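Q: I'm writing a short explainer about Putative HNH nuclease YajD for a general audience and would like to include a description of its predicted shape. Could you first generate the structure from this sequence?
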Amino acid sequence: MNFYKSTAWKNKQKKILRRDEYLCQECKRYGKSTKADTVHHIIPISEDKTKRLDSHNLISLCGDCHNKMHNRVTNELSDKGLDLRSRKYPPSS
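A: Of course. Here's the predicted structure. Afterward I'll give you a sentence or two in plain language.
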């Protein structure tokens, strides 16, 4: 079964959108109030499956911000996605 169609994901997605008050957390950083319609995995599932339902690894985004987090050609995180990851999961010193 596709993870994104699972009951566990749909329930978690609702909880994260509610937690973030249905607002895009990237737009909010810049003082904008934009409705969030997507929940993004800061560390992609392909890199760490154990974080797929971890609330700390999930963030509400609008469609535009979500698209900026991914390089749709390579299917990897874009520079913006890598920046978000380093803000949420700073490298250990």
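A: For your explainer, you could say: The first strand starts at residue 38 and ends at 41.
Q: Perfect, that's easy to follow.
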